[in-house]
Amino acid sequence: MDGTFSDNDLSRVVAADKAHVWHHLSQHKPYETTDPRIIVEGKGMKVWDQHGKEHLDAVSGGVWTVNVGYGRESIANAVRDQLIKLNYFAGSAGSIPGALFSEKLISKMPGLTRVYYTNSGSEANEKAFKMVRQIAHKRYGGKKHKILYRERDYHGTTIGCLSAGGQDERNAQYGPFADGFVRVPHCLEYRAADQGAPVENYGEWAADQIEAVILREGPDTVGALCLEPVTAGGGVITPPAGYWQRVGEICKKYDILLHIDEVVCGVGRTGTWFGYQHYGVEPDFVTMAKGVASGYAAIACCVTSERVFDMFKSDATDPLDYFRDISTFGGCTAGPAAALENLRIIEDEGLLENTTKMGDYMLDQLRAMMDRHEIIGDVRGKGLFLGAELVSDRDSRTPAAEKMVGAVVADCMAQGVIIGATNRSVPGYNNTLCFSPALIATKDDIDNILAAVDGALTRVFG
């Protein structure tokens, strides 16, 4: 830390935080006797707290966001320069960074053509849901309005997004939810036996379960299917072989719009610009947030095909015959200005290539760690987005207790390494350690993360 804040200043910050800030995902009762952690500074892969303790960040800001690392002056300068020129104008008009970033973004997404700006991943998903519903009214008399979503997937915090939420502990106490959202089974091959699924051709079987739901509901009532390319907070679930190809076939067969939620995987996290690009699938909607500007400014996007866009164009005199939506802060120019520089950094520094190389290395090392730790039942992931599922017994695949998984995270934190874990999400299955270091990670960074995990597993489980 550079010493900008004195101890007295930081004491005042901590006191103000305890008195007034309502933290995300936190029970605040313990803060009556302990202080919350305040992150004061970040540089590269590291952050420092109010005590000056250095931490190696293996989760890119806690929620898979800071893809290009901390302290990027060029992004800060791009935002500053843009804010002086024009900070905001409603999205009913255009802006220079908004136009230029949309052009750059679309160049990375063959087959898609339109960018709708908004300010969070939840809101981006809401836009897609609203588009599906409006298309149902415009073309199908309101009938083809149902939206399918997958068990274990997560799409945001609003009531609409929770209605499409596949994580029951995140949904608990927030119902009743919106009608017309229908769940399909997960595709975690490691848990195939829990589903009574075959070992061979599991990917096709898992996709066929989606078709079974469509047939049960009635294909003429189903408007869209919303999936993460790699399930994130539900356990870092990589799709099994054959899954996405079959999903694409099913959507085409029943004229169902395919909505891929790239809020976590988008903009390099898996080693391609977008996670779906590993699997040869053609989406109608792609939503994104987090890594779009690496957290340097708030920005999210709902990207669509021209087919979807054209459904909202009309010469009719009906005053309601267009997409009647606004996102106030979708008109902020800081987001696309930051996002343009973020993409330049990823391109110029070869960070997609680095993500693939370092991700493969980390995956191999985690698998090697299984030889030393029986508690690791499965390792999976794509690029620098990896998970290690912990089990108390490998033969039965009994999930490790969530409390013990949390103890591993806490031990790593004490060592100065921040990792993540599934928690309070999927009942009985909050047992996966999660890793998503910035795309700039080096071999030394990965080795330091792995050493911390290795030591923590030894201390917690023996």
TrEMBL record:
MF terms in GO: pyridoxal phosphate binding; transaminase activity
Keyword Transferase appears in the UniProt entry: yes
Keyword Transferase: yes
InterPro entries linked to this entry: Aminotrans_3 (IPR005814), Aminotrans_3_PPA_site (IPR049704), PyrdxlP-dep_Trfase (IPR015424), PyrdxlP-dep_Trfase_major (IPR015421), PyrdxlP-dep_Trfase_small (IPR015422)
Swiss-Prot/TrEMBL cofactor(s): pyridoxal 5'-phosphate
Keywords for this protein: Aminotransferase, Pyridoxal phosphate, Pyruvate, Transferase
Family note: Belongs to the class-III pyridoxal-phosphate-dependent aminotransferase family.
Family matches, as PANTHER family: AMINOTRANSFERASE, AMINOTRANSFERASE CLASS-III
Protein name: Taurine--pyruvate aminotransferase
Organism: Puniceibacterium antarcticum
